[in-house]
Amino acid sequence: MDGRFPAHIAQALHGQTLYANLEVLPNLMLEVGPELGTPAYKDWQGKIAAGLKDEPGIRPVKNMPPHHAQVYMANEGDIAEIFGDPSEKGNFIIG
Question: In the chain, where are the structural domains located?
Fold first, then answer.
């Protein structure tokens, strides 16, 4: 602990038990556009290129998906985009 904190803080914490509250805000939903190759996809990409729409990316998790929402199995690329590539330093394999 001595190397992580300034000396006066390390001295005060020596032999003490610390507790902390952690708030986790997961972001596990990926925004995807219309089906690739459709006219709607071209329009969507055009709006992104023109700066009228933000680039797709990770969105905050919702507690419940909309009624009749389509569900897709995550692939390796989805997992790597959210959790990081497990082959890169500092990342690890989930499940």
Answer: 24-95
Show the tokens assigned to 75: 């692939």
Cα 48 from Cα 51, distance rounded (Å) = 5
- Written as six digits, the tokens of 19 are 């507790």
CB-CB neighbours of 53 under 10 Å: 14
Q: Which positions ≥6 away from 27 have C-beta within 8 Å?
A: 58, 59, 60, 61, 82
Predicted local distance difference test score (pLDDT) of residue 1: 46
pLDDT of residue 63: 63
Count CB atoms within 10 A of the CB of residue 30: 15
